[in-house]
Design goal:
This protein folds into three domains: 160 residues, NAD(P)-binding Rossmann-like Domain (Rossmann fold), CATH 3.40.50.720; 164 residues, Dihydrodipicolinate Reductase, domain 2 (2-Layer Sandwich); 86 residues, Alpha-Beta Plaits, CATH 3.30.70.260. The chain is built from 14 helices and 18 strands. The strands form two sheets. Strands 7, 8, 9, 10, 11, 12, 13, 14, 15, 16, 17 and 18 form a twelve-stranded mixed β-sheet that branches. A six-stranded parallel β-sheet has the order 3-2-1-4-5-6, sandwiched between helices. The protein has 425 residues and is an alpha/beta fold.
Length: 425
């Protein structure tokens, strides 16, 4: 019998305990052993929880037990969780975690700890909920050089952007609806600011490329500044707007970025709507593969947690946490500086409605080696003495577009800072 302790019996922890009991027979048939949740750690013992296991608020009592075989870390946070997981590993015990923030900062240290101590860590639940994208990268696509990953991996942002696109609603009202429905937190900054997506992208990029980057090292932009005007342009040019986590192998460099993107409506990722997640992975041998499903929620995430339990019970030790037994030195990849990223851009500018505006903007773009692909000015967006201009560019460097926009923002006819959205064809 395998005894399991759950550290953090919230939505996901409760689902883990309940599914292990509800599906006990099929889980035993698939793993070969009986897997039993025996105790859970909570902050508040007085809070009612729909679980049939022993609960305690003393984490040390649970960590000191010798009869626990597998610990499930669902407590959240970074440094405290890191110390707890290290203590478990030092006991020679297995840990399964859904904590993407922990892994965004300490994944390599934890992998090294597990290797030295000859134990294992399961991380499937840390990215995209119930979609087995970690397993796909680490095992199913292990024969491939991974050329690119593009993922919609935050259901809150996808719900908001889908509603904005389909109903031409504004960000503020759509966010309020998401909060009422329980899709967004009271403080939604972590989601809508792109940070949750960045944590998950870093985990996937480590498995695909072995690159050790932190959230502070990569380009992260959220969806807070998407306006009905951007929705107008996107629909006019047959795009959907999605918050994407993007990783690309460019020579010996890895490009990592999180931001809203204009995606052509005929692409599979553009069709991922509502709170669902979708991840596109391109391998040099297999080509493009697509993974779609529920990216959050108690049962979906618990499904991934229990899949890790079953894998570990079957094999005693899981495959390497991040997929590499050792780093292939000749193929060692490094993070591409943000300034060197190249893509296409959509730009929105609000200006005074006067002669010479377009000529001055065009001149500055030309000076910074930026070629305009398309231009739009519609009377519906024109008000009194100002107008809104939209244009898209051909592929150019991030540093060039930023320098150009900095100068454009200081022109006398500008009414607000230019807005950009990157284009992913």
């Amino acid at each position: 019998m395998i005894k399991v302790a759950i550290i953090g019996v919230g939505t996901v922890g409760s689902s883990v305990a309940n599914i292990l009991k509800k599906n006990a027979k099929i889980i035993e048939a698939r793993s070969g052993k009986k897997i039993v949740p025996v105790i859970g750690v909570v902050k508040n013992l007085n809070k009612k929880r729909d679980v049939d296991i022993e609960l305690t608020d003393d984490i040390n009592e649970v960590l000191d037990r010798d009869d626990i075989d597998i610990y499930i870390e669902l407590m959240g946070g970074v440094e405290n969780a890191y110390n707890v997981v290290k203590k478990i590993l030092k006991k020679g015990k297995t840990v399964i975690t859904a904590n993407k923030a922990l892994l965004a900062y300490h994944r390599y240290e934890l992998q090294q700890e597990a290797r030295v101590l000859d134990t294992s860590i399961g991380i499937e639940a840390s990215v995209a909920g119930g979609i087995p994208v970690v397993k796909a990268l680490r095992e199913g696509l292990s024969a491939n050089q991974i050329l690119a990953i593009k993922g919609i991996i935050n259901g809150t942002c996808n719900f908001i952007l889908s509603k904005m696109m389909n109903e031409k609603a504004n960000f503020k009202h759509t966010l309020e609806e998401a909060q009422k429905l329980g899709y967004a937190e009271a403080d939604p900054t972590f989601d809508v600011g792109g940070f949750d997506t960045a944590h998950k992208l870093l985990i996937l990029a480590s498995i695909a490329y072995g690159v050790d980057a932190k959230p502070e090292d990569i380009l992260i932009e959220g969806i807070e500044n998407i306006s009905p005007e951007d929705i107008y342009f996107a629909n006019d040019f047959e795009y959907n707007i999605k918050l994407l986590g993007i990783a690309k192998k460019i020579g010996k460099k890895v490009e990592l970025r999180v931001h809203p993107a204009l995606v052509p409506k005929d692409k599979m990722l553009a069709k991922v709507d509502g709170v669902m997640n979708g991840v596109s992975i391109v391998g040099d041998s297999v080509g493009e593969t697509m993974y779609y499903g529920a990216g959050a929620g108690g049962d979906a995430t618990a499904s991934a947690v229990i899949a890790d339990i079953i894998d570990i019970v079957r094999e005693d030790k899981s495959s390497p946490m991040l997929g590499y037994i050792y780093s292939p030195d000749k193929e060692k990849l490094t993070l591409m500086p943000q300034k060197d990223i190249e893509t296409k851009y959509y730009v929105r500018v609000k200006v005074k409605d006067e002669i010479g505006v377009l000529a001055k903007i065009s001149k500055l773009l030309q000076e910074h080696k930026i070629s305009v692909d398309s231009f739009l000015q519609k009377p519906e967006i024109k008000e009194n003495d100002y107008t809104t201009l939209f244009f898209s560019t051909h592929t150019c460097k991030e540093s060039d577009i930023q320098k150009a926009l900095e100068k454009i923002a200081n022109l006398e006819f500008m009414l607000e800072k230019p807005m950009i959205i990157r284009i992913e064809d």
